[in-house]
Amino acid sequence: MPRTAETDRVSNECWDRALYAYGTAHLFLKRSLRYRAYLRFLAFIGIGGPAVVGAMVIHHIVSPKNLDLLVWVVSIIAVIEALVSVWSLAANWADNLSYAEGSTAENLALSSAFRELGQQAENPRADLEVKFTELRSRDESRRAADAQKGVTEREKRYAHHTGLLQFKRQCEGCKKVPIAMDSSDCGVCGRF
Hints:
- It is a single chain.
- The protein is mainly alpha-helical and 192 residues long.
- It folds into 2 domains: 5-151, no CATH class; 153-192, no CATH class.
- The chain is built from 5 helices and no strands.
- The protein has helices at residues 5-58, 64-91, 93-120, 128-147, 153-167.
- It starts with a helix and ends in a 25-residue tail after the last helix.
C-alpha cells in the first residue's frame, strides 16, 4: 500500500498518542510509588511501634517506674496510627495503588503499540487503518478512565514533559526539546 496523506496522518497521530501514553504511564508510576510508600509507612508504624515497645519490656530496657511514661507515649503513637489508618481507608490508598499500577502497565503497552504502528505507517500495510482504529479505541477508553482519577494540570505538564523527553520532541510552548526531567517556567511542559 503506498503512502498517502491519510497514512501520514495515521503515522503522526500514532506518534502523538505514543508520546501521551508514555507520559501518562510515568504519571501513574509516580503516583503508584507514592501510594506504595504511604502504605509501607502505615504498615511500619502499625507493626514497628508495638514491636519496639515489646522488645524494650522483654529485655528490661525500660524500668518499672518509666513504664507508665512509655505506655503514654505508645498510646499517642497508637492514636496517630489509627488516624492514619482511617485516612488511608477514606482516601482509598490500596485501590489507588492498584489502579495506578494497572494504568502504568496499560499506558506503557499502548505507547509501545502506537510506536510500532507509527513505524509501520511509514511503509503502510493494507490493514493499517483497522489496527489504528482498534488501538485508538483502547487508548480512548484508557484516557477516559485515567481522567476520572483527578489528574491535575501540574501532573499533565509533568506527563507531557516526560513524553517529550522520551521521544526527543520539541515542546509547542517553549520550542525546546527537554534534555532532563528538570522543570522549566514553560506553561506547557514545565512548572511541575
